[in-house]
Amino acid sequence: MHDSLMNTTFCVRTFGCQMNKHDSERVCGMLEALGSELVEDIEHADIVVFMTCCVREAADVRLLGQAASLKNIPLREGSPLAKRIVAVGGCIGQRDGEKLTKELPHLDVVFGTHNLASLPRLVREAIEQGGHHVEVLDESLDFPTSLPTAREHAWAAWLPITIGCNNFCTYCIVPYVRGREKSRPLEDIANEARGYVLSGVKEITLLGQNVNSYGRDLYGKPRFADVLDAVSASGVERIRFATSHPKDLTDEVIAKFAELPNLMPALHLPVQSGSNRILAAMNRRYTREHYLELVRKVREACPDIALSTDIIVGFPGETEEDFQQTYDLVREVGYHQVFTFIYSKREGTPAAEMPDDTPREVIQERFDRLVDLVQEGAWQANQPDAGTIVPVLVEGASKRDEHVLSGRSPKNQTVHFRLPDGAGADDWSGRTVNVRVTEAKTWYLSGELEGDPSEAGR
Ligand code: 5AD
Ligand code: SF4
Prior knowledge:
Elements lengths: L8 E6 L3 H16 L3 E2 L8 E6 L4 H13 L15 E5 H7 L2 H5 L5 E3 L7 H11 L3 E3 L20 E5 L1 E2 L10 H5 L3 E2 L2 H13 L4 E5 L16 H10 L4 E5 L8 H9 L6 E3 L7 H6 L6 H14 L4 E8 L6 H14 L3 E6 L17 H23 L6 E9 L6 E5 L5 E5 L13 E9 L3 E6 L9
Parallel strand pairs: 1-2, 1-3, 3-4, 4-5, 5-6, 7-10, 10-11, 12-13, 13-14, 17-19
Antiparallel strand pairs: 8-9, 15-16, 15-18, 16-17, 18-19
Helix pairs in contact: 7-8, 12-13
Bound molecules: 5'-deoxyadenosine and iron/sulfur cluster.
5'-deoxyadenosine (5AD) binds next to strand 13.
């Protein structure tokens, strides 16, 4: 094959969100299809691919550090290449393009979010010609459906249903680096879901920056509820989705939590702030009251649902009173999980131009207060599960003790349990077993296998 990468090795380092993780699985699939072998350590890799994120500044800094340190790591003995090929893709590649090769002269390849499929060609060109190979497109030509994927777990699959975002929350860089929202045809999604089920996948996670606005750009305007119906009909054991925007979460979708037995009782519904003034400045287009009403309706449809959210502390102009409203909302909702972020200024976004004079220490103190509340809330939210039996989709054995397995409950809680004496630890991942929960902690449940282990989850 002309562009074969036979006898080479590669590794991928992924930053950021699930969409990036999914893109990385595609990178692995494409490079493996050309004969390159995936390795864990950078030292053993002839080709290193960074899938980057620029949602917050910390990720930028980490990329620069990791990519810079590569210069000092020699190429492995026996490599067929003359030098290691370093490629940067994802959101920073998209945002910075050519500029990155000025900051990091030893980069060989830069690609963006719209041209994942070009990576093998760019790598090949870099190997054959040397020099920098930068290709960043303004827009995806099509929904990239046909690239091979190498999934991390055989029994779990991510299924992108939309790419891009049209919402322009004022703090967020995503619409600038992932482009306008494009939906994937319903038939494609249904086919992919059926294919996954046939190949043994037990859990499908539907992905999009805002899955609830699915279909507005498609003929016939299919809705997200239709996607849920179609994927549910594939017969897959578990369905999850991320992320939902509160302004677009419909009653029809909420009703699906009661209707579809394979839609898991867990909803990630980012609120960002509990203050109407800050929500307006963020261009979120809902109010605190609307959000709380959604929570009420979701719980009415599915009383035992686990809710999770994202919160930004220290948005420009946030006062103590604004923060207090966020704090109160978090207490009122009682989340299973809250992802807390300190506001990070992103050049080119509207919020970067807003006056921002709150001292760093004040923001940090608010953040710490919120984190304490979040931990207390997570512990509380897990308590009702102590003493119950939960079906756990097993992910694998603990690194320290192969007789301790962990997996996920329907509510997406991590569950640890010990195998009975004599049971082998090897082939449990991807099986669903019943676990009697003996203890509910802040970030996990622990328990014991219920029933005969030889029968479990077969
Ligand atoms: N600063 C801090 N947090 C941010 N997020 C997005 N942009 C920023 C930013 N500039 C958070 C939001 C979003 C999550 C994925 O990242 O909470 O929901
Ligand atoms: Fe960013 Fe808002 Fe789009 Fe989410 S909905 S990706 S926060 S602009």
